[in-house]
Amino acid sequence: MIFNESDLKKLFVPQANSHKGDNGKVMIIGGSQLFHAASLWPLEIASKIVDMVFYSSVPDNNALVKKVKEEWRNGIVVPREKIDDYITEADAVLIGPGLPRKSGLEPGDDDTKELTERLLKKYPEKKWVIDGGSLQTIDPNLIPKNAILTPHHQEFEKLFGNVIASESEAIFPDGIATVADRSLAMTQYIAKKYHCVILLKGEEDIICSDTQCVKVRGGNAGMTKGGTGDVLAGLTAALYSQNDDAYLVAQIASYINKKAGDSLFKKVGYYFNATDLVQEIPVVMKQLLL
Fold it and tell me: I want to staple 272 with a disulfide (CB 3.0 to 4.6 A). Which of 65, 214, 231, 276 is the partner?
């Protein structure tokens, strides 16, 4: 099944008479000593869509955001030790962009596995978007119900490879041969097993809930650049803060992200980056939603 553009009409759009706080609050937890920008791109795109962004990273990244505070007024920089004070207020939480794997930890970094699993256990009822380093370290049995996961194929394999290997007969009962069909079968099986939504990123995104799947086509080689996946994660979290249907949100986030990439391709070919994508997404959203 291919994404139906008519589903865009189901998406929340802020009303003219709305007040501050009515249009979503997002918590972003990410970044490390090495990966600075990975958590800043989702911050930038989310701040263009929702009313408030709470941003929590390592001290160096928090300091970077504070330096540009004059340009970024729609959020609050939260020290790690105060995450709990703000996470309860957020409508959706994005965790993982720029969080390091164990092998990449540097002095001052968080233990990604400990941080992620502790928060998932403590706040299972939140609307979670799980990305990046968190996908590469957590126990899949701790995935909260209705969480949205945004892995690329390597992250998907790292997180669920053991499950796929041990339950392959159930996943591929008819000996599915093609790569595309196997990807769809695996994504559907995992989404159903863990009662979550998987947005499997690729040339053709696959989005599955525990009952259905859809493919989203589009995009181009410019979207392979570092940071474009982090932008997608921030866009997904922003939309999830405003909408309750995780499956719908994941589809539309994928669609908008690819449409923005295609729009940039028409202007500059492959020669754009994640920052350009952040700027193009609001333009595309206006065209599609208003």
Answer: 276
Give the separation between CA 285 and CA 147, rounded to whole angstroms. Answer: 23
Look up residue 147 and give its amino acid: A
Dig out the tokens for 287 from the structure.
Answer: 């065209």
| Nearest partner of 248 among 8, 38, 2, judged by Cα | 8
pTM of the model: 0.95
Q: How would you classify the pairing of strands 52-56 and 25-29? A: parallel
Give how far Cα 158 sits from Cα of 29, 43, 77, 136, Å: 21, 26, 31, 6
**What confidence score (pLDDT) does residue 257 get?**
98
> Which backbone phi and psi does 143 adopt, to 5 degrees?
-65, 120
Crossing angle between the packed helical segments 179-194 and 153-166, to the nearest 10 degrees: 70
Q: Is 216 within 8 Å of 255 (Cβ atoms)?
A: yes
User: What does the alpha-carbon distance between residue 273 and residue 24 come to, in Å, rounded to a whole number?
Assistant: 27
Between strands 127-130 and 92-95, the pairing is parallel
Q: Rounded distance, CA 69 to CA 280, Å?
A: 22
Helix (H) or strand (E) holding 256: helix 246-268
Half-sphere exposure for 284 (CA within 13 Å, toward CB): 23
Among 86, 90, 98, which residue's Cα sits nearest to residue 229? 98
- Among 194-198, 223-227, 247-251, the minimum mean pLDDT is found in 223-227
Measure the CA–CA gap between 148 and 163, rounded to whole angstroms.
19
Express the helix, strand and coil content of the chain in percent, nearest 5 each: 50, 15, 35
Burial of 56 (0-12, 13-18, 19+ CB in 10 A): buried
Check residue 84 and give its pLDDT: 93
